[in-house]
Amino acid sequence: MISILLRGRTLSFLRWPETIDDHSAWRYEDDGGLLIRDGRIVAAGAYAEVEKQAGQGVKKIDHRPHLLLPGFIDAHVHFPQMQVIASHGAELLDWLNTYTFPEETKFRNAQHGRRIARLFLDEMVRHGTTTVAAYCSVHKASAEAFFAESHHRNMLNIAGKVMMDRNAPEGVLDTPQSGYDDTKALIEEWHGKGRQLYAITPRFAITSSPEQLEMAGTLCREHPDLHMQTHLSENHAEIAFTRELYPQLRDYTDVYEHYGLLGKKSLLGHCIHLSEREADAISDAGSIAVFCPTSNLFLGSGLFDYQRHRRRDKALRIAAATDVGGGTNYSMLRTMDEGYKVIALNGEKLNPFQSFWQLTRGNAEALSVLEKVGTLDQDTDADIVVLDARATPAMRLRMETIETLAEELFLLQTLGDDRAVREVYVAGRAAKSDMAT
Ligand SMILES: [Zn+2]
């Protein structure tokens, strides 16, 4: 039995923080301890108390003065797009056709998929992200590569092969039947293996025929415990094209409703230009709107109205995500920095506790994985990020004038990136320093 005892300033959320002074929304220990046994947190609290339970032979690691938080969660990312990120000058549909689809054809080659899966999860760990909901390419081998690498690292990840059978080049198309069969085989092989979770992944309405969405709906009915992930209402040209493809349905959201794809584990990337009817339908279904600020700004898609969605009578469940390669950074700190600005452009502010809630517990709730990750609670998996608010000269200088935890978190969000991530534990294993050696 491997036991380690971490010491540092621990921060974990109990619920959404209404204000910056809503202290009962989080648990902060200035001298905190986390006792980890076989990859799980078995005790958490004040260091002096936790140490008493540690027993003989426990390995002690002192991270003071750094912050220990639950590992970050990225609710929407495309692992095959590592060589698409930073592609210039296009909006969504041109960006897909010019850069993304040609790049994803390379994942026919299983070896390419394995290489990128390894580099992708390295990058996640370097940035403090311990769980992602990932899109693979259309090729079954890309999902196999992703899950094999994720399983090898013992990471809790959600992923699926995209289903797409039209409006894209031959090299990235499946058929309704092959998309169904490959998905079925991948679920069989990977869902629930170790910490791996499968997501049924029709890319979006434009690249799936009605027959394929029918098949995706069948998969959701056959596997009601699985996630479903897709894109919704990102860009005006996309919405218009979808309306042309599905003229008999009420609106874009109705496409997914009609085929039985909206449920409590449905992750809907973007949701920028929703009508009130669509937002109501998503809320009624308990589905999740995924906010991808760097992507939405980069592709010029629009401003996600976070606070309005959260506050409306029929509130939306919200997750936050990078959406790499439309997104421009792997870091969830950078993501929430841009998220702050998007929300500011809508005339509101997100306070730093709300941001860090979103990155951790909020995203865990949205992904229905809260019983395993997203907090530092006892009896959860030990996925932990260690943050250093003095990681760079500019941060160090700014920290001289910072007095509160809220200010420190806001500095981490505003100037922080992978350099602020000192260590990352994946199921109790020091994954970032392991990687460096
Ligand atoms: Zn996406």
UniProtKB/TrEMBL annotation:
Binds 1 zinc ion per subunit. Residues 68-429 form the Amidohydrolase-related domain. The keyword Hydrolase applies. One of its GO terms (biological process) is guanine catabolic process. GO terms for molecular function: guanine deaminase activity; zinc ion binding. NCBIfam families: guan_deamin, PRK09228.1. This is Guanine deaminase. It comes from Mesorhizobium helmanticense.
